[in-house]
Write a structure and sequence with these properties.
The chain is an alpha+beta fold. The chain folds into two domains: about 10-155, D-amino Acid Aminotransferase, Chain A, domain 1 (2-Layer Sandwich); about 165-330, Alpha-Beta Barrel (D-amino Acid Aminotransferase, Chain A, domain 2), CATH 3.20.10.10. About 20% of the residues lie in helices and about 30% in strands. Strands 1, 2, 3, 4, 5, 6, 7, 8 and 18 form a nine-stranded antiparallel β-sheet that branches. Strand 13, helix 5 (about 250-260) and strand 14 form a beta-alpha-beta unit. The structure holds pyridoxal-5'-phosphate (PLP) and 2-OXO-4-methylpentanoic acid. Pyridoxal-5'-phosphate binds near residues 61, 226, 227, 248 and 250.
Length: about 350
């Protein structure tokens, strides 16, 4: 059993830590079975499973938080349930019913309660649901049996800098998704496609790669692990594109922006418009809100300096603070986003 005595909760990496249990559910003979609880970290998989050969693999990411009142909160798990179903339909997998997803999330959090980082540590418990096609397939066909697993792991911020500005890089020779491809679904292959650009960006000292739209290479799309937005004056502007993942964090920040009296625009953003941005950030479950001080067009050596002094801007700070406060239970859940686990 993992010993938690010496864990530095405030300085956790975004990585895997062994916890006590994971939960699983399998679709077989045309129906979903009972939820199973196991301590096994491995899976027994047929060597011809469709997930291995033809990429029938989708996943999700969501977080559980310990509030100042000691209660456990999940942030918008119903949206993750719906997106997992959309991803499943996108690549002809079996959609997991929302009620099973919710029950699995609550169960796995409760069973691993001792791994939820304490209030005030800045860390949280990350839930990783994953669905795979398990039927043997040699011809390119969808499986008829599927397994969903949800494991959890305590995590700190995705970017080691935390809530501080970083720089991101654009390379035109990479796309994470095709124009009518799988970018709008959370398919593992999108992340494999993005790894080359991300590795180059990191090696050059940037925190992430920012992808352009794959059709015209004219508009901003998103980063490898997160959506993107800019602030111009009092307006929150985020890309509208068929090749990006519909981020639950972005959706929430757009609502928070309205709540804070800001305007919101979801539209194609030409790369050059970065010159007019007052602030910019990545956003996602793992990234939360990660401020950006500079975007570099590596192909043309053009530097879009957004925060000259490297400081986090006031609007991004307000958005981040309100989001975190709702997640922790420090601000009223006016939109019904929080699901309590008891
Ligand atoms: N875009 C990509 C490619 C992602 O992997 C993620 C993470 O899930 C996001 C955006 C952010 O989505 P969400 O806010 O729902 O976590
Ligand atoms: C998340 O934010 O939950 C994600 O899935 C991003 C991932 C690439 C770490």
């Amino acid at each position: 059993m993992t010993n938690l005595e010496n864990i530095d909760w405030a300085h956790l990496p975004f990585g895997y830590m062994k916890t006590d249990y994971n939960v699983r559910c399998t679709f077989k003979d045309g129906k979903w079975g009972e939820i199973e609880v196991t301590q096994d970290e491995t899976i027994n998989l047929h060597m011809a499973a469709s997930c291995l050969h033809y990429g029938q693999e989708i996943f999700e990411g969501l977080k559980a938080f310990r509030g100042s009142d000691g209660k456990i909160r999940l942030f918008r798990p119903d949206e993750n349930a719906k997106r997992l179903q959309n991803s499943a339909r996108g690549i002809l997998m079996e959609p997991l019913p929302e009620d099973i997803f919710m029950e699995m999330c609550k169960k796995v959090v409760k069973l691993n309660e001792r791994f939820i980082p304490p209030y005030g540590s800045g860390s949280s418990l990350y839930l990783r649901p994953v669905e795979i096609g398990i039927s043997p397939r040699v011809g390119v066909n969808p499986a008829d049996e599927y397994t969903v697993i949800i494991f959890v792991t305590p995590v700190g911020p995705y970017f080691k800098e935390g809530f501080h500005c970083t720089k991101v890089a654009i390379y035109r020779e990479y796309d994470r998704a095709a124009p009518c491809g799988t970018g709008r679904w959370k398919v593992g292959g999108n992340y494999a496609a993005g790894m080359g650009a991300t590795a180059r960006a990191k090696a050059a000292g940037y925190s992430a790669a920012l992808f352009l739209d794959p059709k015209e290479k004219k508009y901003l799309d998103e980063c490898g692990p997160a959506n993107f937005f800019i602030i111009k004056g009092n307006t929150y502007i985020t890309p509208k594109s068929g090749s990006i993942l519909p981020s639950i964090t972005n959706m929430s920040l757009q609502q928070i922006a309205r709540d804070l009296g800001m305007e919101v625009e979801a539209r194609p953003i030409p790369l050059e418009e970065l010159a007019e941005a007052d602030e910019a950030a990545e956003c996602g479950t793992a990234a939360v809100t990660a401020p950006i001080s500079e975007v570099v067009d590596m192909d043309n050596d053009v530097h879009y300096v957004i925060r000259k002094d490297g400081s986090v801007g006031p609007k991004v700070t307000d958005l981040y603070n309100r989001l975190r406060a709702i997640q922790m239970g420090d601000y009223p859940d006016e939109h019904g986003w929080v699901v309590m686990v008891d």
